[in-house]
């Protein structure tokens, strides 16, 4: 599966292509509600370089959809896992690697590693 990173040339290129081939997201109705779409939303676990795998969504549904990817994994981390994450982060693991390993969002991994979340774990 291809992972696209914000602001990479690949990411910009795919959005340029989407615009050429499928038009503005805002010319479509949101896939999940009756509002006008605002974004092209990548369908999770599909090839991010294939334009077929993008659905028009409004901002709020897009956010919900992307959030749902991690929804099943929002189980709490154990204290030991929190310590491990911090340990690994300080020895060079990236938040992306940690996110995969622990099934949490990269932003959560960063917040845990930096002590913004799970402040109570020493
Ligand atoms: Zn919507």
Folded structure, characterized:
By secondary structure, the chain is mainly alpha-helical. It folds into two domains: 9-70, no CATH class; 79-113, no CATH class. The protein is 45% helix and 7% strand. The protein has five helices and two strands, in the order αββαααα. It has a two-stranded antiparallel sheet with strand order 1-2. The relative contact order is 0.11. Bound molecules: zinc ion.
Briefly summarize what is shown:
With 122 residues, the protein is mostly helical. The chain contains five helices and two strands.
Which terms summarize this structure?
single chain, 122 residues, mainly alpha, 2 domains, two-stranded antiparallel sheet, 2 strands, binds zinc ion
Order of helices and strands: HEEHHHH
Instruction: Give the overall shape.
Output: elongated
Strand content: 5-15%
Strand order in space, largest sheet:
1-2
- Overall tally of domains: 2
